[in-house]
Amino acid sequence: MLVYCHANLIKNCVYLRMIISLTGFMGSGKTTVGHIVADALGCPFFDLDDIVVKKAGKDIPAIFVEDGELAFRVLEADCLKSFIKKYAQSTTVLALGGGTLQNASSAKLIKEKTFCIYLQASTEALKQRLSNSTGRPLAYGDWQQLLEKRLATYESTAVITLDTDGLSPEQIADEIIIDCL
Q1: Of 12, 38, 55, 88, which residue is least crowded by CB atoms under 10 Å?
Q2: Which domain, by its residues, includes 87?
Q3: pLDDT given at position 125
Q4: pLDDT at position 5, please?
Q5: Domains: count for the chain
Q6: What is the pLDDT of residue 94?
Q7: Is 48 helix (H, G, I), strand (E, B) or coil?
Q8: Cα–chain center distance at 107
Q9: Residue 27 binned pLDDT confidence (cut-offs 50, 70, 90)
Q10: What is the rounded distance in angstroms from the CA atom of residue 154 to the CA atom of residue 159?
Q11: Do 44 and 38 form a contact (C-beta atoms < 8 A)?
Q12: Taking all residues of the chain, what is their mean pLDDT, rounded to a whole number?
């Protein structure tokens, strides 16, 4: 597997001190791929949603129901700022929430302080992945319209866009590592 072939090379690169952020719509594979990339690089992996849940003391659906999406987005932006401040000089992989970049200050922070990769998936692939989704408050209803609304921000914030259709998570991780070298 190519990921592991490059791992030793990357671990030896002292200059590789950056936050690699993964963006894309829900179901695009950010968390799954992020774990693989972090493992290959020998660095920590973080999921921004997990950070928000820990800080809020409740899961995302509960935040949406009890506090609303706006409160969630404010908390998400605060967690992102804290994370970037803490890990700015470290090599880490961070999976963003699907809507993180809709906050202009968060998008600016990601663009300026991370190496952002957009995991692009077709609506057909996302439909299949989201069909059995649980715990994603925005996965229900007209999520395709939501995707269309977010596309431009994903594309303008990312340094690299990877088309993930037809690729396994390991293949996507390989592409990320190749593009990061």
Answers
A1: 12
A2: 31-132+152-180
A3: 83
A4: 39
A5: 1
A6: 98
A7: helix
A8: 12
A9: confident
A10: 10
A11: yes
A12: 85
Place of tokens 């990339």: 37
Q: Give the pLDDT of residue 127.
A: 77
Task: Round to whole Å and give the CA distance between 98 and 24.
Answer: 6
Size (the chain), residues: 181
Query: What is the model's pLDDT at position 53?
Result: 97
* 113 vs 19: CA distance, rounded Å: 7
Give the 3-state secondary structure of 147-163: HHHHHHHHHHHCCEEEE
Which pLDDT does position 178 carry in this prediction?
83
Token readout for 16 is: 């590789």
Contact 84, 114 (CB under 8 A): yes
Amino acid at 125: A
Domain-located, residue 35 = yes
Burial class (CB in 10 A: 0-12, 13-18, 19+), 161: middle
Predicted confidence at residue 110, as pLDDT, reads 97
Strand partners, 116: 21
Does any domain span residue 60? yes
In this structure, are residues 6 and 177 in contact, taking their beta carbons and an 8 Å threshold?
yes
Among the residue ranges 13-27, 80-94, 113-127, 152-166, the one predicted with the least confidence is 13-27
- Judge whether 27 and 130 are in contact, CB under 8 Å: yes
The answer to whether position 23 is within a domain reads no
Q: What CATH number is attached to the domain comprising 82?
A: 3.40.50.300
In a domain, 69, yes or no: yes
Distance CA 129, CA 141 (A): 15
Global pTM reads 0.85
